[in-house]
Each structure stands twice: as C-alpha cells, then as structure tokens.
C-alpha cells in the first residue's frame, strides 16, 4: 500500500493552503490621513471646565495676603482684585475692577439656593449695596479677600456674619 494521498485530496489541500496564505498576506488599505478628527467640546462642557478652572484657581490662592488695590498673587489681593485675577487667569474673562462695577453688571440674579461654583456673591458690609465680593466654590463655601491684615480664605455662607451681610449673587456666563 502506498503512503501517498490521492491526488485530488492533495490538490484540495494545496488549494486551501494557498487561499489561506493569500488572504493572510494581503495588506489592508491605509487611511489617507493620519490626523485625528478635531473635537470641540459642547458649550455646556466648556462652561463646566471653565467653572472648574475658576474653582481650583480661587482655592489655590487661599493664604495669599490681603492688599488694598492688589490684583496679583505677588502683590496680594483685595476682594475685587481677587475676583478679577481669578476670572482672567482661569477663564480668560475680563471683569470690571471694583465691587460696585461688578455688582452693576447687567446679569440675572442668582437665588442663594441656586448658587453654583464660580458665581459671584456680594455682601453689604458698610451699609452700602454690595461693598464686598467673593467667589462661590460650592458646599456653602466661598473664597474671598476679607480685610487688611488678613489673607485670602475660605468661609461659610452660613457663618452668622456672612449670612447677615449677604446681598446678592450673579453668574458670569462662561
């Protein structure tokens, strides 16, 4: 008896093997461009990112000395200088430099129970409308530069003093 396979089985085997090898050796077509598609975040997402940048920048300045008229970490901050610096540095938003001008911005008021991180909160500390400003950071807390001899700090809105002097809040569109 011969060890040879019948010729038709050998031919079938060779045909299948060559088809398999031919299929595996073919190169796939390469894309004509290797550039990734450009992705632009939706406006709502950009607003969230900007608000987070503001939140982290403001908290990062806690401990910076108070300085009347100051608006940089190197010189120190007064309350409106802190707000101006944080919004400009973290979100590229240029705001008026004084508390009065910030309070006069034609923006819708935000109810106290609707505050979101990044909202400006105003206080009446001198029997004038809006004499102090801070940045709400969430969880009933805000960052502000309170007074001469102090430092930028986090305080609770529910603190008796701030609760009694709370005036209003505004949201800067981001």
From TrEMBL:
Q: What is this protein called?
A: NlpC/P60 family protein
Q: Which GO terms describe its molecular function?
A: cysteine-type peptidase activity
Q: Which organism is it from?
A: Pseudolysobacter antarcticus
Family that this chain belongs to: Belongs to the peptidase C40 family.
> What range(s) does the NlpC/P60 domain occupy?
48-173
Question: Which keywords label this protein?
Answer: Hydrolase, Protease, Signal, Thiol protease
Keyword Ribonucleoprotein found: no
UniProt feature coiled coil, ranges: none
* Record's signal peptide: 1-22
- Which InterPro entries does its entry note? NLP_P60_dom (IPR000064), Papain-like_cys_pep_sf (IPR038765), Peptidase_C40 (IPR051202)
GO term, biological process aspect, one = proteolysis
**PANTHER family per UniProt:** MUREIN DD-ENDOPEPTIDASE MEPH-RELATED
Q: Name one Pfam family in it.
A: NLPC_P60
């Amino acid at each position: 008896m011969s060890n040879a396979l019948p010729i038709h089985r050998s031919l079938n085997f060779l045909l299948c093997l060559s088809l398999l090898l031919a299929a595996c050796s073919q190169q796939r077509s390469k894309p004509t461009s290797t550039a990734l598609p450009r992705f632009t975040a939706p406006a709502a997402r950009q607003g969230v990112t900007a608000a987070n940048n503001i939140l982290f920048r403001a908290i990062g300045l806690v401990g910076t000395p108070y300085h009347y008229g100051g608006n940089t970490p190197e010189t120190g901050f007064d309350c409106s200088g802190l707000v101006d610096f944080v919004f400009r540095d973290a979100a590229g938003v240029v705001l008026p430099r004084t508390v009065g001008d910030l309070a006069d911005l034609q923006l819708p008021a935000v109810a106290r129970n609707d505050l979101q991180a990044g909202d400006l909160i105003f206080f009446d500390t001198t029997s004038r409308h809006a004499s102090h400003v801070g940045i709400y950071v969430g969880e009933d807390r805000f960052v502000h530069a309170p007074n001469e001899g102090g430092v930028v700090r986090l305080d609770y809105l529910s603190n008796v003093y701030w609760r009694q002097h709370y005036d209003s809040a505004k949201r800067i569109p981001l």
